[in-house]
Amino acid sequence: MRLIIIMAQTISIFTTLFVFLVTYCLFCTVRSHLQIVPGTTYDELYSSAIDSYNEENWENTIFFMENAIREFKFYRVKLTECRVHCQNLSLIVVPEEDEALSELKFFQGIFKKAACLKTCKSAKLGNRAERISEEATMKFLTLMPYSYLQFAYYKQKKYYDAQCAAYTYLRANPDDEVMKNNLDYYYNVYGAENETLVDLEERLHQKYYLEGNSAHEVSNYTGVIEHFEEALKFYWWAYDECRALCEGQYDSREFLDLYESIAGHYAYNLHCKEHCNTTLATIGGEVIPNYLASHYHYLQYAYYKLGKIQEAVDCAATYILLKPDDEVMRNNMAFYEEALGVSKYKIRIRPRAQAYWDRCQLEKEVLDFAKKYFWEEIEEDKVVLQDYGDAEPIDPNEVRLKDGVVLDDKSGDEEDDDDDEEEDMMSKRGDMGSVFELGQDDMGVENQGKDLTVEESGNIENNDEDDGIMDDVGGKEEEGDNDDGNDDDDDDYEEEEEEEEKDEEEEEKDEEEEDEEEEEGDGEDFYDYPEEDLDDDDDYFEPERPEISLKMEARRKKMEEEKKRENDEGDSKEDGDDENLKFYEKFKTTSEMVKEEEFQKRLRKKDEPRFPRGPSKKEKYEEDLVKLYNSAPNFDMVKKMASETSRVPYPSLAGIELHRSPQQLMGLNRVAVDGMASPQECDTLIRLLHEEAIYGDGYEGRTDPHTPHEKYEGITVKDAVEAAAGNRVPLYYPATFIYLAERSRAFVQRFFGLSTHLYFSYTHLVCRETKPGAPLNRTDFSHPIHADNCIIDHKRNICHKMLPAFTWRDWSSVLYLNDGFEGGNFMFANFDNTSQVEVEPTCGRLVAFAGEELHAVRPVLEGQRCALAMWYTLDPLYQELDMFQSLEKIESILKLVQRKEAEQKLEEQELQQQEGGHLEL
Ligand SMILES: O=C(O)CCC(=O)C(=O)O
Ligand SMILES: [Fe+2]
């Protein structure tokens, strides 16, 4: 019996196991194609995501990209852990009499750290590090994965996720127009408020910082303390991480001696670490001035408000350590000392801040020495340092800076910042010296400073909310950028030296004093802050409320934007006819590859409040187009276009002749052809330019985008269509624009045998001419040597495909519209800036080439040179929506024209029939 029971039990166990295994295996097969081998790098996952993206497999795109992001974070956390852990191994060497022996011991310590790192990394990361490319890392630092993710989410109808991903990407790349449009689109159609969106890359220290800020705004001081204390904790963590990630590779690109190469790597590492403050202080693409120090400012005020004077004094002292020149805080400190009798309190600087400060000082000295005597910061180091060294997402401004293309403006800014920091640094040193000096006197002794009366105190309270004070504080903060006082500038080094020596002596003295104080010590957690004797006659004010209100600023900006939007809408309402057009435009510009269905859905959705009793939506839409069509004075030309309907989306390439072959132009990805435009078409575009072009248009309004000696007037396709819609130019002007652009695009696609669709990325009609008074013997270029999708590295003869270059612009072409000017040749160039081969512009000539090709435009010395410049992309994500929409609009108009003609014909026939009938009678 028992045997039977046991057998039954065994069978039932096996059955359960079997069922379980079958289910499990079924599950396996469903999921198997989406499984990741442990140890796969973020680089590899990213590639898989991109492959899936290209195959339009959105589910897999999401799966791989999400995992790539996860893996990227994991990798960096583990790397940081190892570096921080091994850094802490002792390097202290007991000096030997023989210098060489001391050195050996020192390096033995370094070897220990290296061994520690190797073991740690291999335990935590396997061999990942060897398989990660710099290019991929760069993409993660600029949050590129989110731009793919948002689209994949959108395709999978995960609209909220799409919105968050777009929002996240934009926080790091706030100037990205495509993504702005997408976010607008998601907002308009799926409608999650921006406030509810989550920045998927939000840093905790920034989150708490912003929350602390909000608490401050509503005078919730307990909240301020909670959030800012938390923010500081995370700040220090992120700061350590950022520094640790600086300890990566270094490519000196030179043959160096032993000491030179060790020192070069070390200097590079210090230089990278110097940037960590700025990186951490970057929120939503903007650097918050005085970021670290302001934590202590807020805290000081909140503690004071809650009557925790000791803590307030500590924070004030810490703030002064970081910003010694800050008058507001000096006044606050004086107030604590005078009005509250600080002798009751011991002034203590927060230890973490003090340690940070001390290290910054020393690092700066060491780096200054390196810079002065042997280490030259090469331009590219900036790139590598900031791209790969920083733990936090890169601020697009920094990216721009490091890439060198916009180096002119941006590096200027940087230098200014550095100067500020330098000043700050010098004053800090001086001031700290004097603070310590003054601190010797007994704080209990009556000071010369005036006591604060109750009335005065009341006044000050009122000042709290006063704009004047707010500006004052804000202004100061803008002056000093970072808190570390480090900088790249070594010009003043010699002048500083003497001063530094003096300061050092003073500091030594101070240290002795500090030591004495510490012995009395009443708090292990804090460094003692030597007490200050205030010997000037200033009034001392109650602590001032920090008015660096980020939220307030954000709200103000938002209100301004809203107002602007309202105004715009108001304008268009007045302008009844244009309203629908504008609406139509707006609605279309927010779309990315919008299918007709979605298009109609949105149209309905947006229409409802606007056309409550009007004709049906579809009719209304067509009515608008009829209006548009009727508004074109040159009716004949529209009809002509209509009769050539087939040319618009699929233009014929007949009549195009080779001007220069790829071989003649010395590059397989280059060609020049004639006959792309007829003389009449060239003339049309030139007239469009003369009638509608705007100074600097197409160059983000920059009037001298390439040389100050030339004037650039341009117009984009969208403006051209708008000009026609506004009845300022005939409709066939933009129609010609689009037609020629499309014909050029189709040619490039076919000539270079591209197997996937080539999209417009940007199109721009532009005329350039010499400004009156420009030197006759100019040697500059009308457009300096450049490549359209990468950044030239003249030292290494390569072109880096990285931001801020338009890396997605795979192919370019320029259609020339005229000749008869002097200069202005198009030129293919060598890396050494010499000319390779030139093409002379003339009406209908098109030069086409790959985005990596180096090229330039010779100066236009006399007359005006007009051209239609076009950039194309293979990535649909970057396609030019304006072109796509304008094309659609033109197509619709053409259809209408045909329909109207058909109707007209019908009417005529009916009339004829009637007339015929009548005659018969
Ligand atoms: O106008 C030309 O010939 C070339 C212009 C160009 O290279 C550019 O705008 O990127
Ligand atoms: Fe170009």
From TrEMBL:
The keyword Phosphoprotein does not apply. Its EC number is 1.14.11.7. Residues 759-874 form the Fe2OG dioxygenase domain. It comes from the Eukaryota. The keyword Iron applies. Pfam families: 2OG-FeII_Oxy_3 (PF13640), TPR_leprecan (PF23557). Residues 397-410, 542-567, 579-618 have a biased composition (Basic and acidic residues). Keywords: Dioxygenase, Endoplasmic reticulum, Glycoprotein, Iron, Metal-binding, Oxidoreductase, Repeat, Signal, TPR repeat. GO terms for biological process: collagen metabolic process. This is procollagen-proline 3-dioxygenase.
